[in-house]
Amino acid sequence: MPTSRPASPPPSPPPSPSPSPSPRRNLPQLLGDARRWFEEALLTAMNAAGGPPVTSTQVQLFAVLDPEGTTVAALARHMGVTRQTAHQAVHGLVSAGLLEQIPDPASARQRLIRRTPAGERAHHQAERLLQDLEGQLAARIGHDAVNALRATLEAPWGPAPTPAPPPTSAPTPTT
Fold it and tell me: What's the gap between Cα 165 and its chain centre?
Protein backbone atom coordinates (compact mmCIF):
# COMPACT_ATOMS: atom_id res chain seq x y z
CA MET A 1 0.00 0.00 0.00
CA PRO A 2 1.44 3.45 -0.83
CA THR A 3 2.65 5.54 2.04
CA SER A 4 2.75 8.96 0.40
CA ARG A 5 0.15 10.58 2.64
CA PRO A 6 1.44 12.38 5.77
CA ALA A 7 0.87 10.58 9.05
CA SER A 8 -1.76 12.06 11.33
CA PRO A 9 -1.40 12.01 15.10
CA PRO A 10 -3.76 9.69 16.97
CA PRO A 11 -6.83 11.27 18.52
CA SER A 12 -6.52 12.78 21.96
CA PRO A 13 -7.27 10.57 24.95
CA PRO A 14 -10.78 10.69 26.39
CA PRO A 15 -11.45 13.98 28.17
CA SER A 16 -10.61 14.02 31.85
CA PRO A 17 -13.50 14.44 34.23
CA SER A 18 -14.60 18.02 34.74
CA PRO A 19 -14.13 19.59 38.15
CA SER A 20 -17.91 19.88 38.55
CA PRO A 21 -19.50 17.41 40.96
CA SER A 22 -20.68 15.02 38.21
CA PRO A 23 -21.24 11.35 38.98
CA ARG A 24 -18.33 8.99 38.50
CA ARG A 25 -18.36 7.31 35.08
CA ASN A 26 -18.86 3.56 35.11
CA LEU A 27 -16.36 1.05 33.75
CA PRO A 28 -18.34 0.15 30.58
CA GLN A 29 -18.35 3.86 29.64
CA LEU A 30 -14.61 4.16 30.27
CA LEU A 31 -13.84 0.95 28.37
CA GLY A 32 -15.99 2.16 25.46
CA ASP A 33 -14.09 5.46 25.36
CA ALA A 34 -10.77 3.60 25.36
CA ARG A 35 -11.93 1.31 22.56
CA ARG A 36 -13.07 4.28 20.49
CA TRP A 37 -9.70 5.99 21.07
CA PHE A 38 -7.89 2.97 19.60
CA GLU A 39 -10.37 2.56 16.72
CA GLU A 40 -10.22 6.22 15.71
CA ALA A 41 -6.43 6.25 15.89
CA LEU A 42 -6.19 2.99 13.92
CA LEU A 43 -8.58 4.18 11.20
CA THR A 44 -6.70 7.49 10.93
CA ALA A 45 -3.31 5.75 10.75
CA MET A 46 -4.49 3.20 8.17
CA ASN A 47 -5.97 5.95 6.03
CA ALA A 48 -2.73 7.95 6.29
CA ALA A 49 -0.78 4.85 5.24
CA GLY A 50 -2.91 4.53 2.11
CA GLY A 51 -4.97 1.58 3.31
CA PRO A 52 -8.45 0.90 1.99
CA PRO A 53 -11.22 2.85 3.71
CA VAL A 54 -12.90 0.71 6.36
CA THR A 55 -15.48 1.36 9.07
CA SER A 56 -15.13 0.69 12.79
CA THR A 57 -17.53 -2.26 12.40
CA GLN A 58 -15.25 -3.71 9.71
CA VAL A 59 -12.23 -3.23 11.99
CA GLN A 60 -14.11 -5.08 14.74
CA LEU A 61 -14.94 -7.89 12.29
CA PHE A 62 -11.27 -8.29 11.37
CA ALA A 63 -10.42 -8.56 15.07
CA VAL A 64 -12.72 -11.56 15.64
CA LEU A 65 -12.11 -13.38 12.36
CA ASP A 66 -10.47 -16.80 12.71
CA PRO A 67 -7.55 -17.39 10.30
CA GLU A 68 -9.19 -20.54 8.89
CA GLY A 69 -12.52 -18.77 8.36
CA THR A 70 -15.64 -17.93 10.31
CA THR A 71 -19.35 -18.04 9.48
CA VAL A 72 -21.33 -14.81 9.40
CA ALA A 73 -23.46 -16.06 12.30
CA ALA A 74 -20.34 -16.67 14.44
CA LEU A 75 -18.94 -13.28 13.48
CA ALA A 76 -22.19 -11.61 14.56
CA ARG A 77 -22.10 -13.44 17.93
CA HIS A 78 -18.45 -12.51 18.57
CA MET A 79 -19.08 -8.88 17.59
CA GLY A 80 -22.34 -8.59 19.53
CA VAL A 81 -24.23 -7.35 16.47
CA THR A 82 -27.06 -8.66 14.29
CA ARG A 83 -26.36 -11.08 11.45
CA GLN A 84 -27.48 -8.36 9.04
CA THR A 85 -24.86 -5.93 10.41
CA ALA A 86 -22.14 -8.59 10.20
CA HIS A 87 -23.24 -9.52 6.67
CA GLN A 88 -23.08 -5.87 5.56
CA ALA A 89 -19.57 -5.51 7.00
CA VAL A 90 -18.49 -8.74 5.28
CA HIS A 91 -19.99 -7.61 1.96
CA GLY A 92 -18.07 -4.32 2.10
CA LEU A 93 -14.79 -6.10 2.87
CA VAL A 94 -15.39 -8.70 0.14
CA SER A 95 -16.03 -5.84 -2.32
CA ALA A 96 -12.78 -4.19 -1.17
CA GLY A 97 -10.90 -7.43 -1.86
CA LEU A 98 -9.96 -7.97 1.79
CA LEU A 99 -12.20 -10.98 2.51
CA GLU A 100 -13.48 -13.93 0.54
CA GLN A 101 -16.24 -16.48 1.02
CA ILE A 102 -15.42 -20.18 0.71
CA PRO A 103 -17.53 -23.30 1.21
CA ASP A 104 -17.65 -24.56 4.80
CA PRO A 105 -16.36 -28.15 4.79
CA ALA A 106 -18.50 -28.87 7.88
CA SER A 107 -21.78 -27.69 6.32
CA ALA A 108 -23.01 -27.60 2.75
CA ARG A 109 -25.36 -24.71 3.66
CA GLN A 110 -22.76 -22.44 5.27
CA ARG A 111 -19.90 -20.38 3.89
CA LEU A 112 -16.77 -19.37 5.73
CA ILE A 113 -15.40 -15.86 5.62
CA ARG A 114 -11.62 -15.50 5.57
CA ARG A 115 -8.97 -12.95 4.69
CA THR A 116 -7.56 -12.69 1.17
CA PRO A 117 -3.82 -12.08 0.73
CA ALA A 118 -4.62 -8.34 0.59
CA GLY A 119 -6.68 -8.77 3.77
CA GLU A 120 -3.76 -10.54 5.48
CA ARG A 121 -1.47 -7.62 4.56
CA ALA A 122 -4.02 -5.11 5.91
CA HIS A 123 -4.43 -7.20 9.09
CA HIS A 124 -0.66 -7.30 9.70
CA GLN A 125 -0.42 -3.57 9.02
CA ALA A 126 -3.20 -2.93 11.56
CA GLU A 127 -1.41 -5.10 14.15
CA ARG A 128 1.80 -3.07 13.68
CA LEU A 129 -0.13 0.19 13.97
CA LEU A 130 -1.85 -1.01 17.16
CA GLN A 131 1.54 -1.87 18.68
CA ASP A 132 2.67 1.67 17.87
CA LEU A 133 -0.51 3.09 19.42
CA GLU A 134 0.11 1.06 22.58
CA GLY A 135 3.59 2.58 22.69
CA GLN A 136 2.12 6.07 22.30
CA LEU A 137 -0.35 5.35 25.08
CA ALA A 138 2.50 4.15 27.32
CA ALA A 139 4.35 7.41 26.61
CA ARG A 140 1.24 9.32 27.74
CA ILE A 141 0.14 7.38 30.82
CA GLY A 142 3.26 5.33 31.64
CA HIS A 143 4.45 1.82 30.84
CA ASP A 144 3.46 0.54 34.28
CA ALA A 145 -0.13 1.78 33.78
CA VAL A 146 -0.37 0.12 30.35
CA ASN A 147 1.08 -3.14 31.69
CA ALA A 148 -1.36 -3.08 34.63
CA LEU A 149 -4.26 -2.40 32.27
CA ARG A 150 -3.23 -5.31 30.03
CA ALA A 151 -2.84 -7.65 33.01
CA THR A 152 -6.24 -6.65 34.35
CA LEU A 153 -7.99 -7.14 31.03
CA GLU A 154 -6.24 -10.48 30.39
CA ALA A 155 -7.17 -11.87 33.83
CA PRO A 156 -10.02 -14.39 33.78
CA TRP A 157 -13.23 -12.65 34.83
CA GLY A 158 -15.36 -15.79 34.85
CA PRO A 159 -18.82 -15.99 33.30
CA ALA A 160 -21.02 -12.92 33.35
CA PRO A 161 -22.94 -12.81 36.61
CA THR A 162 -26.64 -13.50 36.60
CA PRO A 163 -28.92 -11.22 38.54
CA ALA A 164 -29.92 -12.43 41.97
CA PRO A 165 -33.58 -13.30 42.28
CA PRO A 166 -35.62 -10.68 44.09
CA PRO A 167 -36.07 -11.36 47.79
CA THR A 168 -39.26 -13.15 48.58
CA SER A 169 -41.36 -11.74 51.31
CA ALA A 170 -42.99 -14.01 53.84
CA PRO A 171 -46.73 -14.32 53.42
CA THR A 172 -48.61 -12.04 55.72
CA PRO A 173 -50.91 -13.86 58.07
CA THR A 174 -54.58 -13.15 57.63
CA THR A 175 -56.76 -12.80 60.66
Answer: 33
The pLDDT confidence band at residue 172, using thresholds 50, 70 and 90, is low
Radius of gyration of the chain (CA): 22
Q: What is the pLDDT of residue 19?
A: 55
Residue-wise pLDDT for 89-122, tens only, equals 999 999 999 999 999 988 888 899 999 999 999 9
SS3 (DSSP) at 20: coil
- Report the C-alpha gap between 71 and 77 in whole angstroms: 10
CB within 8 A of 65, min separation 6: which ones?
A: 75, 99, 113, 114, 115
| Nearest partner of 60 among 88, 102, 30, judged by Cα | 88
Determine the Cα–Cα distance for residues 110 and 154; give it in Å rounded to an integer.
Answer: 32
> In whole angstroms, what is the distance from residue 132 CA to residue 137 CA?
9
